[in-house]
């Protein structure tokens, strides 16, 4: 296994930050290829900033970000992203929303028109994988929040990204839907072997899904704890009711509480 | 009667009721038709002057549509520029707002100095008065793209141009078509103002001449023709809005 995302000693100050304080400071994170990493931390600690740094939407003031062996100096183009807000375009059908990244990324961009059928088939296969079989013709606003979030995952994966970035993707969903989607993500990760970075403030979510969990301190964010999660895969939702799982969540909770107190 | 049918009938009932009350007041109080002619008197005048009115109304219609067409083209272009670039937006906003605050009646004499009396001043007035709402709406639609959506696309290597074409412009369309309803009404006001002061034809010019000659029923007939044309043009743009960006209304209802 090799290191896929290497954030080394990164300090970032937003150009438009009013107080001029860094959003993250001396951040060090190493994520292996194919690994499922989770980042947890209090809100405003710089989790989304970390995502932007790793995808080349922001460049660090100090330190280096290396993704897939290359130092990041522009948007990385190999990432798929999904957010809490599914941001589906209401004038496109769900299927056309999912195909949107292909209209941007090469080589798909120039192939899309001639090989449309092939890509549509791929999108429909993805829809089936997330439990939305045959729903592609519907408009996003005809889908429930959970369904939109599933579609948004398909959109993040359609161009076969090597890196999947999930920024609190299930924050707005009820707990049943959320657990369903945990399983969807778990299966997608297993099937596609993609490296995943999941930002969340749900500690159970992190513990259930991740191979490795990073806890961040309050602003300016830095890593206060790194924890490997050894539960064997494939994991069943049942493990969330085992004592080992509770212990892990409890431990994480301790790190976060300390990080908040330190602030 | 269902609510839907009531909604369809309501505009007719209210309009007819309005004119009926007007008629009753004029007759009941014996108001002189020099002060306020009754609707029946105005109808009779409209019929009497129908050829003249139709001829001038056609002219006004053309002036309005020409000015409106220019406003749509320039409004879209400028709106996209303002929505796409924060620099252009910040730089031109004071100019635009300042320009928009000038009453367009005050500009007509200048147009006459430049182009003389004829079709240019009404078209230009219609254009100048109606392009501002289009610019502002298109710019708003483009500049309010959700930051997450922008991140999703930028992380894929999308250029500014990609983002505007794929997201900004389609998203601005409901704003654009919404602004057309306002713009067509303004363009219409503009062309009439232009005609009143700087043209030898058109309803505006007819109004000026009729009031100078104290032909009160003709003045009122011209006003009624103006109102009817205005309603028709508004309804056409509203219909175009409905049929092109129905998704915006439906998606909003779904969210509500
Ligand atoms: N575009 C920006 N300009 C200035 N400051 C920002 C910007 N985005 C985030 N910040 C600041 O950086 C800090 C970290 O933000 P963020 O990464 O969004 O936190 P999180 O995702 O952990 O809640 C916050 O204090 C926030 O106010
Ligand atoms: Mg965030």
UniProtKB/TrEMBL annotation, chain A:
Origin superkingdom: Bacteria
GO molecular function: ATP binding; ATP hydrolysis activity
Pfam families recorded: ABC_tran
Record domain ABC transporter: where: 5-243
Keyword Glycoprotein tagged: no
Keyword Zinc: no
Family statement: Belongs to the ABC transporter superfamily.
Protein's name according to its UniProt entry: NitT/TauT family transport system ATP-binding protein
Source organism of this protein record: Microvirga subterranea
Automatic annotation (TrEMBL), chain B:
Database matches in Gene3D superfamilies: MetI-like (1.10.3720.10)
Gene Ontology annotations of biological process type: transmembrane transport
Topology of the protein relative to the lipid bilayer: Multi-pass membrane protein
Keyword Transport appears in the UniProt entry: yes
Transmembrane segments: 7-25, 61-82, 102-120, 127-145, 218-240
Keywords carried by this UniProt record: Cell membrane, Membrane, Transmembrane, Transmembrane helix, Transport
Family: Belongs to the binding-protein-dependent transport system permease family.
Main location as per UniProt: membrane
Pfam family membership, one: BPD_transp_1
Organism, as annotated: Microvirga subterranea
The keyword Transport is annotated on this UniProt entry: yes
Domain ABC transmembrane type-1: 57-237
Gene Ontology CC: one annotated term: plasma membrane
Name of the protein described by the UniProt record: NitT/TauT family transport system permease protein
């Amino acid at each position: 296994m090799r290191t896929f995302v290497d954030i080394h000693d990164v300090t970032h100050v937003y150009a438009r930050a009013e107080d001029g304080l860094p959003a993250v400071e001396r951040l060090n994170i190493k994520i292996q290829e194919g690994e499922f990493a989770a980042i947890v931390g209090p809100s405003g600690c710089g989790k989304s900033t970390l995502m932007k740094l790793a995808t080349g939407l922001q460049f660090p003031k100090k330190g280096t970000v290396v993704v897939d062996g290359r130092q990041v100096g522009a948007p990385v183009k190999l990432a798929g992203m999904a957010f809490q807000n599914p941001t589906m375009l209401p004038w496109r059908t769900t299927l056309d929303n999912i195909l949107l990244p292909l209209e941007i990324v090469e080589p798909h961009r120039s192939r899309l028109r001639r090989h449309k059928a092939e890509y549509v088939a791929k999108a429909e296969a993805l829809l089936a994988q997330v439990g939305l079989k045959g729903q592609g013709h519907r408009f996003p606003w005809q889908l429930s929040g959970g369904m939109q979030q599933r579609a948004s995952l398909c959109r993040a994966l359609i161009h076969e990204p090597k890196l999947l970035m999930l920024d609190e993707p299930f924050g707005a969903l009820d707990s049943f839907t959320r657990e369903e989607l945990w399983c969807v993500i778990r299966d997608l990760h297993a099937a596609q072997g993609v490296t995943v970075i999941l930002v969340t403030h749900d500690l159970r979510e992190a513990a259930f899904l991740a191979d490795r969990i990073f806890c961040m301190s309050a602003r300016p964010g830095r890593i206060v704890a790194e924890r490997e999660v050894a539960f064997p895969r494939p994991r069943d939702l049942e493990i969330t009711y085992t004592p080992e799982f509770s212990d892990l969540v409890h431990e994480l909770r301790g790190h976060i509480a300390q990080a908040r107190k330190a602030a | 009667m269902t609510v839907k049918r009531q909604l369809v009938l309501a505009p007719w009932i209210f309009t007819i009721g309005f004119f009926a009350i007007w008629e009753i007041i004029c007759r009941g109080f014996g108001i002189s038709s020099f002060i306020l002619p009754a609707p029946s008197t105005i109808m009779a005048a409209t019929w009497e002057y129908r050829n003249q009115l139709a001829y001038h109304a056609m002219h006004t219609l053309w002036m309005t549509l020409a000015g409106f067409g220019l406003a749509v083209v320039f409004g879209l272009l400028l709106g996209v520029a303002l929505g796409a670039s924060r620099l252009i937006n910040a730089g031109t906003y004071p100019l635009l707002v300042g320009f928009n605050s000038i009453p367009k009646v005050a500009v007509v004499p200048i147009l006459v100095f430049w182009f003389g009396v004829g079709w240019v001043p009404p078209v230009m007035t219609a254009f100048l008065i109606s392009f501002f709402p289009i610019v502002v709406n298109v710019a708003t639609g483009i500049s309010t793209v959700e930051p997450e959506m922008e991140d999703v696309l930028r992380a894929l290597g999308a250029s500014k141009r990609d983002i505007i074409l794929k997201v900004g412009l389609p998203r601005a369309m409901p704003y654009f078509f919404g602004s057309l309803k306002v713009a067509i009404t303004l363009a219409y006001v503009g062309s009439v103002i232009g005609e009143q002061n700087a043209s030898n034809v058109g309803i505006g010019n007819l109004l000026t001449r009729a009031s100078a000659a104290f032909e009160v029923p003709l003045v009122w007939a011209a006003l009624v023709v103006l109102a009817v044309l205005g309603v028709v043009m508004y309804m056409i743009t509203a219909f175009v809005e409905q049929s092109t960006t129905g998704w915006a209304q439906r998606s909003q209802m779904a969210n509500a």
